[in-house]
Every structure is written in structure tokens, then in C-alpha cells.
Amino acid sequence: MAEKNYYKHPSAIVDDRAIIGDKSSIWVNVQIRENVVIGSNCVISKDVYIDAGVNIGNDCKIQNGVSVYHGVTVGNRVFIGPNAVFTNDKVPRAFNADWQITKTEIKEGASVGANATIVCGTTLGEYCMVAAGSVVTKDVEPFTLVMGNPAKPYARINEKGEIVEKI
Description:
Order of helices and strands: EEEEEEEEEEEEEEEEEEEEEEE
Shape: globular
Oligomer: single chain
CATH architecture: 3 Solenoid
Low-confidence stretches: none
């Protein structure tokens, strides 16, 4: 077995079939399921759940209390704020045995604010930003700040997240 080149808190549960990149940190009470791939230099904070088959890029930060469900793909340099929520079922019913995963893609450099909800089937474009508490029901264009419920474009931003032009 290869030597682990990442930090894993003793309370974290990481499936043996998961691949964790160099210099990543897996903190308190994290669960990482089978066939997960997490890139290098990532921070997976307290109480995070990473579902089976999820791919997370390099240099990502996933803050406390986030669940990243099967069908969500996270690009490089993505920030996901505390208690952000992802879904993967367009028509959730407890009794639907035939449900299908609806995928969500988070592109490079995107940021998701605290307590935001990302409804499945959406794409968050490169370096976009979702304001805290927003509910994303439609794709977010690259370099765009969205906010509200439902989230609507507010401004064009640059790679640093600074407002360039209000919409």
C-alpha cells in the first residue's frame, strides 16, 4: 500500500478505495466514501460528507457541514462555504425506487457562499460566485456574482471576486 501524503484526523473515516491527493487535509468527523477522488492541497473541514464516486479537483476548500453527493463534480480551486447544500434528485420521493441522479458541475475557481443551496442539474461557471444563502436553480455564467432566492445575476466579477460591473 502506498504511503499517505495527506493529513487525516483520527475521527475521519476514509474508505480504502478513495484517492486523496498530496498535502490535502481531512478534518474532524469527515466521511469520504468509496471511489472518491480528491486532488492535491485540498482542505476538507469538520463534519463534511463526500458521497461515493465524487471527484474534487486540486486546491479546493470545503468548509464545515457540507455534503457533496454522488453526481456533483467539483473543479480545481473551488471554495464551498459552511453548510452549503447540494441536491442530486430532481423529483425526490422517499418511495421512488427508480430515481435517477441529476448531475451538477462546479467549474474551476467558483465560490459557493455559506448556506447556499445548489439545485441539481446546474453548472456553476468558472470563477463565478454564489452569495451566502442564495438558491441556485439555473446555470451561473462564468465570472458572475449571483444572489437571492432564486439566485439572479448581480454583477460581473474578476478572478479575485471583485465586482467589475453591476448588472
